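Lesson 9: reading folded outputs for more than one chain in a single document. The general rule is that every protein is listed as its sequence immediately followed by its structure tokens, and records are never interleaved. Here is the first one.
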Amino acid sequence: MYGLIGKMLAASGKREDLLAILLDNNDTMPGCLSYIVARDPASEDGIWITEVWTDSEKHQASLQLPHVQAMIAMARPIIAGFGERFETEPLGGIGLPARV
């Protein structure tokens, strides 16, 4: 499995708008096992996104899906930047299949 944990920064006062875009435009993405969007309680503008994919290739391919491209286009004007980004190798847990 392939995992990503990343921080996104919304333009000042636009976090709720950005959260709505991220949550309302995440249709099925082949290979995506988990896609979690969360407020950062330590930052007025911070958002954490946690993703688990079957593999990194499926994640890369998802960036070309029409609904993902549309979501990126809507979100881009209110994204102020990005913070930390971590790649992980998930092994399983609640809601994920056990790794063989």
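And here is the second record, again sequence then tokens.
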Amino acid sequence: MIARDRLVKMCDELLYPDRFKDYTVNGLQVAGRSRIGRIMTGVTACQALLDEAVCWKADLVLVHHGYFWKNEPVTITGMKRRRLATLLGNDINLLAYHLPLDAHQVLGNNARLAAELDFEVQGCADGELGTGLLWLGAPSKAMDSVALGAHLTQRLDREPTMVLGHERQIERVAWCTGGAQDMIELAFEAGADAFISGEISERTTHLAREMGISYFAAGHHATERYGIKALGEWLAREQDIEHRFVDIDNPA
């Protein structure tokens, strides 16, 4: 067992949430019991994950996508009420880290995606939201855009939406997990032949074609499964507490 406040402090000191201009609250979002022996991790604090946490008797739910996003309604009704009632009624803590978890150089979503795809990491390009969000590197073996798409399908178990901007070999690739499609211009300016993120917008297609950079929307959920799992595993090792990762299926 570990004191909840100590566990939260460990995560804050690891991820440095104050360094990011985020859209949500990073850290403890809902307070539950003060002692933690079981942590459940998942990408999003949806009702299905909370129900699993109740069944498993988790003390804390740790996620990448929590609650209290900017510009969302402040009223506690409907779906939000049901979710909060589940947490409060079962005395379960909710701990969430968004951009800080994307950026961490070892446990973060971008770092773990690079490991999953066997990319050679060469650096990061900074943006207005914080450092470490757009990563740069190279595939471990020669491939063109079509081969890179097949590689993503095989490694992430999800076929990406592809916009093929050219036919040359991919020598430099940029990536940012989740909904970072609008970083495509920054990726192009950094010299990337391909850019990987989770989602695609209508405008992304035209930008990729006209700039001559291949774009891959590999899935918001699919690209962000790895960081939160790694963070939960790290906490379990550091404090000898139980950890369980639950992957709630999401095609987006």
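What the second record shows: The two ends are 36 Å apart (CA to CA).
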